[in-house]
């Protein structure tokens, strides 16, 4: 919307003088109070579609159009059947999209309610997953814990590194290098998660033994980094793999933000004698903070919902491990993928119930990220 | 920033600087010391050597620079080296991912592998192929595209050409939120419908879930492209008395078609790699099933997962999984490259 506004303003600036008096661009001058998405069949005057627009609108360039672009679109006049059909189709698609979102919420809630009403234990606090028996007992405590822990590890690893890479690409790398690297990072964001999962299980996991041994030797006394020597298919490995997966996403969005830092800000800092790091701290990071936050939340949303990479790497168990290094635990998405095969209808409902919780969590995270982004319309992370 | 440090040196406009070669000298020293310590202490892991060298480099740079150039310059140098270290650190796993996939994938990837199904080949045995999986993925993704692309493009048209008021705001917001839906949740949604109507897994169910994942991506990219179409074009067409819908179809869309195609192809690349909803809804099938509307189908990402899970330890299955992963990556990358090529070629001006 910003873009269209800006464009029409430029139109307004150079349009009327060029066209003279014959046919002024009607939309630059004619205020149209009717909202665009309402057909407003009453608007009989349709100067925007009739070539013989009244010339009296032309010599009024002084008056700024209240909502430029609006008049160019006064839709669905009663005379144009094609317009009405087309508007109906396109608006219908938008409504369909909303309906799908609503349907997801409604149907998941319905099946989840069925499952939870059968549950013999507290759905939120139970440390067990046995929904298939006639006396179903299941709860999401372990899953919630595992999901949060793995995502927190992923964020703790990925965000600083991603911001550093974004800074590298915008402020440190030689120009000839930064273009191709940015391109490759873009491509890496498109690698399917199952490939990350396969790589994580067959390449990353064997390489984690060294790190785990080291952590256990020097930091084992903390308890959360103690290791009993099992296969390193634990929450820490999952967190690191998730970090690698969301790295390109966060990097891409952060890079876009950092690139938009006004040149004048940086030059002003440089002119005051600031070093490059001080420039970054004083002008780049403050400008990009909200962008980095929302980029991180987009990454968090992806880490929370990641299924296959977690399912291949983690050796799941339905308990909470005190140590991040010992195998066990689970996440919402991973649990759904692993338990689906053996589940009967009741079990599937239980999985849907856990999926609903995941849905709500990601909805909140993404909504928050979008609200932060929405304050600054220039960039959007949707194509990350 | 405090200017006192520069004012403290009256008479000289520039403080002392380290020579150009200083960072390299520090780096070489750091690596040498790290290797020496590593050898002396008997540390086998090269990773530990590397980490030690990196730490030594950062500390050495700071100490040297702080002594010669002052604290502010030292901080700047440390920040620079940290940024470089972070970049190199991140490159390692990502390069390894691509490298391993290619090296391990080419082992069994050949014409036979691409043209045969798993059929009666047991999971632990060598042989078999991914024809059934490619077929399944092509059909599911194709159907999903047929559903999602028109809806997505029309929604974007609504938002850009007509959209004002609360409905458009709601659509914009929920499209944004929808991009973040985990793929497994989309799968669960269709699953709940299937449970309601008592349906068995079939290919089209997967397509529906994939379409849900694809729609917001198409909307967003198309929206961006339509916004790039100059308003003058619309006005010129409208001024000639062309109805609004014909203006959109004949002027706006053709101008933006390159970008729209790019967006749709990127969206296809994204959903082609989705395995979670396919696992729930299409279920997987070692045999060729060319009918997406009946019976379980296979799918490329799902094939990778099942080869990995169902045959713990069998190298034959792992080889197949890698080969399938290579095929999938190649497909996604080609789609990406072509899409970006189109975008560059047909940018609206």
TrEMBL record, chain A:
Name of a matching Pfam family: BPD_transp_1
Keyword S-adenosyl-L-methionine belongs to the record: no
Protein's membrane topology: Multi-pass membrane protein
Transmembrane segments annotated in the record for this chain: 94-116, 136-169, 181-205, 234-253, 350-373
InterPro entries per record: MetI-like, MetI-like_sf, Phosphate_PstC, Phosphate_Transport_Permease
Keywords: Cell membrane, Membrane, Phosphate transport, Transmembrane, Transmembrane helix, Transport
Compartment annotation: Cell membrane
Superkingdom, natural source: Bacteria
Span of domain ABC transmembrane type-1: 144-369
Region of interest called Disordered, as start-end residue ranges on this chain: 1-78
Comp. bias intervals (Low complexity): 40-60, 68-78
Keyword Membrane: yes
Similarity comment: family membership: Belongs to the binding-protein-dependent transport system permease family. CysTW subfamily.
Role, per record: Part of the binding-protein-dependent transport system for phosphate; probably responsible for the translocation of the substrate across the membrane.
Protein name: Phosphate transport system permease protein
High-level lineage: Bacteria, Bacillati, Actinomycetota, Actinomycetes, Kitasatosporales
TrEMBL record, chain B:
PROSITE patterns according to UniProt: ABC_TM1
Keyword terms of this UniProt record: Cell membrane, Membrane, Phosphate transport, Transmembrane, Transmembrane helix, Transport
Record has Chloroplast as a keyword: no
Domain ABC transmembrane type-1: 134-339
Subcellular localization, as worded in the UniProt entry: Cell membrane
This protein's record includes keyword Transport: yes
Membrane-crossing residue ranges in chain numbering: 21-41, 47-66, 78-99, 141-160, 172-196, 202-219, 251-272, 321-339
Pfam families xref list: BPD_transp_1
SUPFAM superfamilies reported for this sequence: MetI-like (SSF161098)
Membrane topology note: Multi-pass membrane protein
Functional note: Part of the binding-protein-dependent transport system for phosphate; probably responsible for the translocation of the substrate across the membrane.
Protein family per UniProt: Belongs to the binding-protein-dependent transport system permease family. CysTW subfamily.
Protein name, entry field: Phosphate transport system permease protein PstA
Organism: Streptomyces fragilis
């Amino acid at each position: 919307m910003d873009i269209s506004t800006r464009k029409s303003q430029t139109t307004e600036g150079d349009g009327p003088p060029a066209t003279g008096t014959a046919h002024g661009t009607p939309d630059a001058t004619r205020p149209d109070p009717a909202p665009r998405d309402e057909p407003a069949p009453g608007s009989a005057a349709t100067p925007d579609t009739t070539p013989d627009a009244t010339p009296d609108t032309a010599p009024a360039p002084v008056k700024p159009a209240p909502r430029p672009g609006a008049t160019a679109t006064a839709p669905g006049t009663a005379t144009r059947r094609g317009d009405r059909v087309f508007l109906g189709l396109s608006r219908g698609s938008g409504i369909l999209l909303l309906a799908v979102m609503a349907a997801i919420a409604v149907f998941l809630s319905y099946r989840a309610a069925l499952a939870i009403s059968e549950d013999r234990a507290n759905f939120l606090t139970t440390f067990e997953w046995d929904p298939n028996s006639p006396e179903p007992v299941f709860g999401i405590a372990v899953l919630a814990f595992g999901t949060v822990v793995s995502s927190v590890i992923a964020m703790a690893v990925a965000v600083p590194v991603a911001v550093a890479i974004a800074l590298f690409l915008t402020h440190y790398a030689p120009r000839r290098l930064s273009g191709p690297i940015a391109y490759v990072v873009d491509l890496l964001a498109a690698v399917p998660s199952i490939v990350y999962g396969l790589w994580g299980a067959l390449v990353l996991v064997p390489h984690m033994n060294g790190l785990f041994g080291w952590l256990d030797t020097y930091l084992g006394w903390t308890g959360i980094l103690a290791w009993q020597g099992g296969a390193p298919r634990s929450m820490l490995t999952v967190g690191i793999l998730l970090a690698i997966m969301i790295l390109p996403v966060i990097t891409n969005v952060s890079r876009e933000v950092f690139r938009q830092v006004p040149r004048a800000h940086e030059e002003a800092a440089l002119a005051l004698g600031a070093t490059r790091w001080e420039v970054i701290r004083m002008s780049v990071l403050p400008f990009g903070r909200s962008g980095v936050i929302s980029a991180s939340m987009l990454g968090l949303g992806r880490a929370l919902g990641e299924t296959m990479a977690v399912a291949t790497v983690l050796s799941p168990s339905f308990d909470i491990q005190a140590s991040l290094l010992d195998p066990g635990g689970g996440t919402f998405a991973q649990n759904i993928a692993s338990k689906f095969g053996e589940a009967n209808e009741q079990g599937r409902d239980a999985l849907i119930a856990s999926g609903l919780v995941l849905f709500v969590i990601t909805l909140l995270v993404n909504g928050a990220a979008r609200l932060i982004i929405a304050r600054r319309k220039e960039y959007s992370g949707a194509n990350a | 920033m405090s200017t006192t440090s520069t004012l403290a040196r009256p008479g000289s406009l520039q403080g002392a600087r380290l020579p150009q070669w200083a960072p390299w000298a520090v780096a070489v020293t750091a690596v040498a010391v790290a290797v020496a310590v590593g050898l002396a202490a008997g540390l086998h892991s090269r990773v530990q050597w590397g980490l030690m060298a990196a730490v030594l480099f950062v500390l050495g740079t700071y100490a040297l620079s702080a002594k010669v150039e002052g604290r502010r310059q030292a901080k700047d140098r440390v920040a620079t080296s940290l940024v470089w270290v972070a970049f190199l650190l991140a490159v390692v796993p990502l390069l390894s991912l691509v490298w391993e996939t290619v090296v391990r994938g080419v082992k069994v990837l050949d014409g036979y592998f691409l043209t045969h199904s798993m059929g009666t080949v047991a999971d632990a045995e060598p042989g078999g192929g991914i024809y059934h999986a490619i077929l399944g993925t092509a059909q599911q993704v194709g159907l999903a595209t047929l559903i999602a692309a028109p809806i997505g493009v029309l929604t974007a048209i609504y938002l850009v050409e007509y959209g004002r008021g609360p409905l458009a705001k709601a659509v914009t917001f929920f499209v944004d939120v929808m991009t973040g839906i985990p793929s497994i949740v989309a799968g669960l949604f269709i699953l709940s419908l299937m449970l309601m109507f008592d349906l068995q897994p079939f290919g089209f169910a997967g397509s529906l879930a994939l379409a849900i994942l694809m729609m917001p991506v198409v909307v967003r990219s198309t929206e961006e492209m339509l916004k790039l179409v100059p308003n003058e074009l619309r006005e010129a067409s409208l001024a000639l008395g062309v109805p609004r819908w014909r203006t959109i179809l004949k002027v706006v869309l053709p101008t933006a078609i390159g970008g729209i195609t790019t967006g749709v192809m990127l969206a296809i690349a994204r959903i082609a790699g989705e395995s979670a909803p396919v696992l729930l809804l299409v279920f997987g099938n070692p045999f060729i099933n060319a009918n997406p509307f009946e019976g379980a189908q296979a799918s490329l990402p799902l094939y990778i997962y099942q080869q990995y899970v169902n045959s713990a330890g069998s190298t034959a299955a792992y080889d197949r999984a890698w080969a399938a992963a290579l095929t999938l990556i190649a497909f996604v990358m080609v789609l990406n490259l072509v899409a970006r090529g189109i975008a560059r070629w047909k940018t609206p001006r």
